[in-house]
Design a protein that fits this description.
Order of helices and strands of chain A: HHEEHEEEEE
Shape of chain A: globular
CATH class of chain A: Alpha Beta
Largest sheet of chain A: 6 strands, mixed
Helix content of chain A: 10-25%
Distance between the termini of chain A: 34 Å
Number of domains of chain A: 1
CATH architecture of chain A: Roll
Oligomer: homodimer
Number of helices of chain A: 3
Chain lengths: ~120, ~120
């Protein structure tokens, strides 16, 4: 397991454990966090930490797939709040020291299937 | 570059080039394609090929990040149709021969930012 892959896994594990010191230690002080779907951006580790500490609800995370190379990483994860479950994907950029310099979250939401392909598709 | 990473990159490149033979050669005959957001599933390379050949519009793909290990892979890509642009994420499972056995697509759509975090966030 590469160091960056370990850091990507630790990112999720420390969030799940509310280990804020351990989580912040993975981040570059000037980390940039982006949510492309809402076009929101948070600059800096301190603000990003506050964002996560303040995030409402008793959320839980479970990593499904963790991948990384020398410059990038990603985790596909389950997000669980009570009886509700969703999936998310987070991408990371790493600097040469293995610190996370950029985090990009995607929160894909349910939608109705387009028509015209029913003959090829099953639903679940 | 690992063989699986090369296959993940080729998946996007062959789709973009409408190189259907090259694309199908990356897939296990019993590949399963899933779209969790619409809960759609397509079983088998032939149906999945038809799905892609029939997909409407003059779409174009450009890989932004490609990652893979011995069992999994993913690509974060831009999807462009005319003046419109979106982002997508695709995950792969690979068998021991390097064939893709599972493809999972996410198409995150824009949403309005929740209130209560304006003091931490900039918009773009």
């Amino acid at each position: 397991m590469t160091d960056n892959r370990r850091a990507a896994a630790q990112f999720i594990a420390t969030l799940e454990g509310r280990d804020w010191d351990g989580w912040a230690a993975l981040l570059h002080p000037d980390v940039v966090y982006e949510l492309p779907q809402s076009r929101e951006r948070i600059r800096g580790r301190e603000r990003y930490l506050q964002f996560n500490r303040d995030y409402p609800s008793e959320w839980h995370l479970r990593a499904k797939v963790v991948l990384a190379d020398q410059t990038d990483g990603c985790v596909w994860f389950d997000w669980v709040v009570g009886d509700e479950q969703a999936e998310g994907v987070v991408f990371f950029s790493f600097d040469g020291e293995g610190l996370i310099t950029r985090v990009t979250d995607f929160w894909p939401e349910p939608y109705d299937p387009p028509s015209g392909r029913e003959q090829l598709v099953e639903r679940w």
